[in-house]
Amino acid sequence: MNIGTRLTGWATLIAAYAAVVAGVIPFRELPPKRQQLWLLALAAGCALCWICVSWLVTARRRAVSRKRVTRKKYGPRSSRLVCWVLGFGIALASGAALCQGVGPDGPYGEWLAKVGQADGATHDVRIQRIVGEPRSTGVEINDVDEYASAVEVVLPFDSGSRRVTVENVHTPGMPEVGRTVRLLYAPSRPDLGVRETPDNDIGTFVGRLIALPAIWVLTFAAGVVTGMVLHRNESGVRSARRFTPRVHLPAAALLACGAGLVLPLLTGFPATGTGWALAAGAATTPWLALVWLFRTAGKARPS
C-alpha cells in the first residue's frame, strides 16, 4: 500500500472518529454545533484527499504493470487493526447520528440556544406579585398540589432592573409573595424574555437519562459485534482497502447523504418528529455503506 494512501486513509479515520465521538459524548453544544461541523468538514476533506491520492496511485500502478511483465510479490498486509477500527467507527457514526435527535428542539430549543450564547443562567428570584388566579395542574409533589401561575418579578438586567411578568411558573402549593422561584434568562439580553427553569421537563429527563444511555450501550454492543464479524472476514477487509471507484465512490456517496441528513440537526432546531426521522435516516447510511462495500469489493477486479 502506498504511503500516501496510508497517511490520507488514517487521517480520514482519525478525523471521522473525532467527529462521531464529539457527537456521542455527554457534553454536547446546542446548534449551531460548530465543533462537529468543522470535524465533519475535516473528515470530508481527508476522504477527498484519500480518493484523489488512491486514484493517482491506481493509475500509476496500471501504467507500470503494462510495462513490466513480472513484479515482486509481497505477502498480504495484516488488516486486524483496521477490522476493529472500522467496526467501532461504523457503530459510532450510527450512534452519533441518533444522539443528534436527543435534546431541545423546535422554537423552545432555539430559545435555549440563544440564551446560552448570551451567557444566560438560572437565577433564584423572589415573587413580587401574583398576577391573576393560580390554577392547579392536577399534579401532586410530596402530597402537595402543584399550581401554575403568572408572577411578577424584578430582574437585574445589565441595562438596569426591570419588572417582568412570567407566565406558567410552577410551585408546590399556592404561590406567595416573597417566595423564591428559579427562572432562566440572559442578563445581557432582556429582549429574549424569561422562562421558568425546566426542572421537571419530561423531555429532558427521557432524553438525558434514558435515550442517550440506551444509545451508548447499543453503540458499544454494535461496535463489538461488527468488529468481530469483520475480524473473521479479514480478507474482505483487506480487499476493500484497495481503492476501486465503482466500490468506494457509491459508499462515499451514501456517507455523504448521511451527513446531509444530519446537517439540519447540527445547524438548527427541527420539530421533534422531523428531527428523529432525520437522525434515524442518517444512522442507517454507515451500515448501508458497509454492506455495499463488502458486497462489491470481492467482485471488483482491477483492470
Automatic annotation (TrEMBL):
<feature type="transmembrane region" description="Helical">
    <location>
        <begin position="81"/>
        <end position="103"/>
    </location>
</feature>
<feature type="transmembrane region" description="Helical">
    <location>
        <begin position="275"/>
        <end position="294"/>
    </location>
</feature>
<keyword id="KW-1133">Transmembrane helix</keyword>
<feature type="transmembrane region" description="Helical">
    <location>
        <begin position="37"/>
        <end position="60"/>
    </location>
</feature>
<feature type="transmembrane region" description="Helical">
    <location>
        <begin position="7"/>
        <end position="25"/>
    </location>
</feature>
<keyword id="KW-0472">Membrane</keyword>
<protein>
    <recommendedName>
        <fullName>DUF3592 domain-containing protein</fullName>
    </recommendedName>
</protein>
<feature type="transmembrane region" description="Helical">
    <location>
        <begin position="209"/>
        <end position="230"/>
    </location>
</feature>
<feature type="transmembrane region" description="Helical">
    <location>
        <begin position="251"/>
        <end position="269"/>
    </location>
</feature>
<keyword id="KW-0812">Transmembrane</keyword>
